[in-house]
What we know:
Number of strands: 50
Low-confidence stretches: 1-20
Strand content: 35-45%
Number of helices: 5
Oligomer: single chain
Largest sheet: 29 strands, mixed
Amino acid sequence: MRKITIILFGLLxxxxxxxxxLSDFYITPDSSLAKAIQKAREAKRLGQATAVTIHxxxxxxxxxxxxxLRPEDSGxxxxxxxxxISGGMExxxxxxxxxxxxxDVPDFNGHPIDFRQxxxxxxxxxxxxxxxxxxxxxxxxxxxxQKQVLWVPKKAVDNxxxxxxxxxxxxEMWCTSNLRIKSITVQGDSAAIRxxxxxxxxxxxxxxxxxxxxxxxxxxxxxxxxxKELLDEPGEWYHDIREHKLYYKPRxxxxxxxxxxxxxxxxxxxxGSAEHPVRNINIKGVTFSHTTWMxxxxxxxxxxxxxxxxxxxxxxxxxxxxxxxxxxxxxxxLGRADAAVEMRYTEDINFDGCSFEHLGGSGxxxxxxxxxxxxxxxxxxxxxxxxxxxGSFSPEGLETHLPYQPVDFREVCTGxxxxxxxxxNVTNEDxxxxxxxxxYVSGITIEHNTIHHISYTGxxxxxxxxxxxxxxxxxxxxxNLIYDYARHMYDCAGIYTLGNQPGTVISENVxxxxxxxxxxxxxxxxxxxxxxxGSSNITIRDNWTPEEKYLQNANGxxxxxxxxxxxxxxxxxxxxxxx
Length: 579
């Protein structure tokens, strides 16, 4: 039986003058966090407290489903002291089989599990793949859209011809696609690969981004993963879902003290409504850890940009005429990856001194209809996809190139701030994701953050690929430090914008030290600052970069560029980043 340890602090009487209050709850890792939240809710409902703080003592709080915070929880504070809210399950009882360590994978909560990540002794292990050095990735040969076949060198697939669940991760300009391999047909020194649906249909029909073929001079690289036959390097693992066995090749001298696999996609959900939002919740000093995102294993993953995946897409003939914009040659509809913490219909949900780490989806996501809310002094690291996400990236029913101007402005995420935080080693699986992704937002402040060691762009602000007036305005990107970006993808920038954003100011940021991977689609197509399609009414001033390598692509009117480059003052240069 699970022990429940909830101490109602106000009932611990010390001396005759003690004052009884139910405002502070103290719980330990062998307690139920969900029950503590319910008790706090009831204390407020019964008039025993106007606000409640739940104190989490040090340790790991493992979940069997997401915590759900509702309008009735408004006013709550959750305070952690080396406390980890985890969606992971430990794998124990390892045994040696040759050079591998093997463990049986038990059911979780009454059901067999699958997963895409493993952490051994606190370090992310590598899902078995065909290359340890991405510079050694194979390149595609032919891309047949009509027959939906991708031709590759035979030697690239020799080891996985009989692998039942192998996947290809395909590099495509500014995105990577996860494609589940359906069949491999060898023909001479080449091999034809076909993929499962729905991703095959989307992959071969959508025009942007597209893999590069040899005639471009930069054919797209790829790597193969999720096959036991590829398990040949220390630190790699493979999960045999049929046999419920986990295989791991240990590093030299390594002993497994702790092995964790993720069993949750989301840890905390804030669920309000337009009329009854969740209000005034503060989370302090808590680590959110060990999540996965399983859609790529079931349906593949073909993104358009920033990890937002296509659910349907195709090329247009003839193209669509758009007033005030260039013609449109494609259509697409999008979905959004899960995050460790997600907010819908909220006001003033704040995170201070928290960590988001060891995550298989995104980190923190203000999804829709969120007003205000600060993220301060937080750390985002070891995240597969985006770090911090805010605002709509086109609703599922709205074609993504159409302007988003909702009738009910409450849908728009407004007044958020992400400040004094650090982002590194995020985007480490979906290379086309970004550290901070803000879509259709209004009045967001992105200030004094340090962003480094990321796969693509640092900060992406805006959405829509058009210059029409939408719900975006008055956004601020100020005094951030961005370096060692674009470690895997180009067509990128330290700071990137889309769409019409009146009143938006990008100022006093420092962007430097772009990475130089050899396998990008165009080695010259990278920038420090990049205002992309439809970017309008944005002021870009006093940003320090080593040179004036910027791009203004299909911009609208009203942009102002002032004093950007290496001549910007040392004071501005030294002031950027987390302090």
